[in-house]
Design a protein that fits this description.
Blueprint: H1 6-35, H2 39-65, H3 77-91, H4 95-118, H5 124-151
Length: 152
């Protein structure tokens, strides 16, 4: 059974923080996708939910390969509260614009989590993976911001 390298042990909490945000994103995209009226946006949100699951799986695989097996399978408190707030707004008839505003807030939090993670020391392959994922998430944030502005 492999034991975590010292480098990865130091990065473990950083990766777990990103994984928690990815769980929030995955669940948030799914729930918002369920509520959106616009079919193109609905498809986009379901696709992004699957993408976040893939990102999460990639990071968990790295941890598992290094012998870290106790990856917590939950999101953040802030993410749960944001999803609950989004669900309430949807139930009150907030419409796609309101849902997109909620999604944009979640994406800003995801971008921040990646930025914070990349401010730490990370082994090169892990850093490279996080940079790639972060670039995708920044593009997603920009897409959602644009869609929200169009829905105003």
């Amino acid at each position: 059974m492999p034991h975590p390298s010292q480098e990865l042990k130091e990065a473990e909490s950083t990766l777990k923080s990103v994984i928690q945000v990815l769980i929030d994103s995955q669940e948030g995209f799914q729930k918002i996708g369920d509520e959106l009226k616009d079919e193109t946006l609905k498809h986009y949100f379901f696709s992004e939910s699957l993408q976040r699951a893939q990102f999460r799986g990639d990071l968990e695989t790295i941890l598992h390969q290094e012998g870290v097996h106790d990856v917590k399978e939950s999101g953040t408190v802030e993410g749960s509260m944001e999803r609950a707030w989004g669900n309430l707004k949807a139930m009150l008839g907030g419409g796609d614009h309101t849902l997109l505003a909620t999604a944009e807030k979640e994406e800003v939090a995801a971008v921040k989590a990646y930025t914070d993670a990349l401010d730490n020391y990370l082994p090169f392959p892990v850093r490279q993976l996080l940079v790639t994922q972060s670039t995708h998430i920044q593009s997603s944030r920009d897409y959602i911001r644009g869609a929200k502005e169009m829905a105003e």
